[in-house]
Amino acid sequence: MAARNWIFAVAVAVAVFLSLSTFSSAQDLQIVNAERRIDLSSHIVKAFLTLKVENIGKDPAADMLLAFPPTQIKNLAMVQALAVMGKKKKKTYLPLDVKPTEQPDAPNDAGYFLVSFATPLGPGETVTLEVLYILTHSLEPFPVEITQSESQLVYYHDSAVVLSPYHVKQQTTFFKTPSTRVESFTSVEPANRAGKEIKYGPYEDRAPYSYAPVIVHFENNSPFAVVEELVREIEISHWGSLQITENYRLTHGGARHKGVFSRVEYQSRRSITGSSSFNALLAVLPPRVNSVYYRDDIGNISTSHLRTGFKKSELEFEPRYPLFGGWRATFVIGYRVPLEDYLFEAPDGRRYLNFTFGCPLVETIVNKLTLKVVLPEGSKDPSAVLPFTVNQDLQVKYSYLDIVGRTVVVLQKDNVVPTHNVPFQVYYTFKPIYMLAEPLMLVSAFFFVFVTSLAYVHIDLNIVKK
Amino acid sequence: SDAIQTGSFKIDSHRSARSKRRRRDLSVAKMETAKPIGSPIPVAIYPTLSVFTLAIGLVITAFFFIYEATSSRKNRSLGMELASATVASVFLGFGSLFLLLASGVYV
């Protein structure tokens, strides 16, 4: 009797627990088809996820969750989602709002992003979403140290099945490697490799939160250019120019270099040695740029080529030495652009600067980016408008002919990739009469000299009156 | 965005030339709704302006010091001195500002 009571109590407890868990996970959406293409060609991993989502519940769904494993969530630089409308030739893409969220019952500390649909998805309806997410620092070099003549091999850890809080009916994952040399990849049936592509799938009917860890060990000799710290200062001068100064601390983020560096071997057999090293970098600058300089603590670095154009200018520059794994280079790039290209007047009378955020170098990750916008003296009420979250701060800078100092809007962001090169605006109010403060300061300085000479001439220092 | 641009170019070839021009004009009009702010004085004339204002300022400074040196205590006019000092300092002040701007120190 007591045993039967015990079993009954346990059964009730289990039933209650199950009903509670189904209530809190909200399983009214399911993914009919998921196709994931992960591009491993460069050290910035780009993943394109096409999801066909169906509402199998009774209520309309306004949003859906994207789940990421905890190792990936801290390396995620950007998540974008687009809703696909129309079909075949008349496809249009509608950008959707994506926000990071926290869920209380996340298994194994998975991270979540909430995607809000343009219109709530009715019961029985399906919608196709295209999600793009970018991972940084996800390629782990193995072997960790290589000599000058070896090629660079890296590990990429991921799952063969898409991690999702919803049931996935059918899914396929493709990995694209930069070369045909793949040392090994975890086999999760059915998995096969053809040339530069590894295909995992198709997998049918996977439960929510299913995860099959795979490791791909392949060769990646693309330049692992990582800027550890970048400080960009944009100085606005209402007399007609925008002066931009960029301080870089560049490293090679791949397999560390061990042994000696033989310059003879590097220069004579360039195709074999230093395959993972790089010595040239490309910076994309604004079109009408002038007075470009490239220097470091020692002095000017002459190994650079500037090509100006109508849509953009390209600065191809080389550090003083080629960069191997773990090596660093510190330098400053500065340039000037005309003011009328970037400063505008808003309809409410405020002025705003419209400039691109991010790093001008192509295919580089910036670990810590600090952007300082120096507003002219006499500017009030500064505010910055950006399409993503950054840390904002205000500082004061004293420069030429300053009395009270210039307000500096400081924007700081970690883990910046080239996809972050989007325009942002900094609004401020400025009365044009304040521009006269600088010439009037110079005029009063000269007038003081004249008044002193006048006083000297007029003062009578004779002891005996003539 | 490059793919989107080439895609629209393929569709453009089927349209007439007039509608192509209208399409391009629309995109230009969109960009010009924001009013750009530039310098009150054209940047290209800064060097010329600095030379002329400094020259005039130095001429008046010369007049000031010659007046001081040649006039005696009795027939010295304070008004004349102050007037020439003011005018000279205005021209010299603006001239040095344009000189700073012309040499690249955008204050």
TrEMBL record, chain A:
Which organism encodes this protein? Brassica napus (Rape)
- Tell me the classification of the organism that encodes this protein: Eukaryota, Viridiplantae, Streptophyta, Embryophyta, Tracheophyta
Oligomer and partners: Component of the oligosaccharyltransferase (OST) complex.
The protein depicted here goes by the name Dolichyl-diphosphooligosaccharide--protein glycosyltransferase subunit 1
Q: Write out the pathway annotation from the protein's UniProt entry.
A: Protein modification; protein glycosylation
Task: Tell me where the signal peptide lies.
Answer: 1-26
Q: Name one GO cellular component term.
A: oligosaccharyltransferase complex
UniProt keywords, alphabetically: Endoplasmic reticulum, Membrane, Signal, Transmembrane, Transmembrane helix
Note whether Membrane occurs among the keywords.
yes
Automatic annotation (TrEMBL), chain B:
Task: Determine if Secreted is one of this entry's keywords.
Answer: no
Q: How does it sit in the membrane?
A: Multi-pass membrane protein
The answer to whether keyword Transmembrane applies is yes
Q: Where in the cell is it found?
A: Membrane
The record's keywords, sorted A to Z, are: Membrane, Transmembrane, Transmembrane helix
Could you tell me which residues belong to the region Disordered?
Answer: 1-27
- What are the transmembrane regions? 44-66, 78-102
User: Which InterPro entries does its entry note?
Assistant: TMEM258/Ost5 (IPR007915)
Q: What's the chief localization of this chain?
A: membrane
**Which family does the UniProt entry place this protein in?**
Belongs to the OST5 family.
The record describes the protein's role as: Subunit of the oligosaccharyl transferase (OST) complex that catalyzes the initial transfer of a defined glycan (Glc(3)Man(9)GlcNAc(2) in eukaryotes) from the lipid carrier dolichol-pyrophosphate to an asparagine residue within an Asn-X-Ser/Thr consensus motif in nascent polypeptide chains, the first step in protein N-glycosylation. N-glycosylation occurs cotranslationally and the complex associates with the Sec61 complex at the channel-forming translocon complex that mediates protein translocation across the endoplasmic reticulum (ER). All subunits are required for a maximal enzyme activity.
**Subunit composition?**
Component of the oligosaccharyltransferase (OST) complex.
Question: This protein is called what?
Answer: Dolichyl-diphosphooligosaccharide-protein glycosyltransferase subunit OST5
What species is this protein from? Brassica napus (Rape)
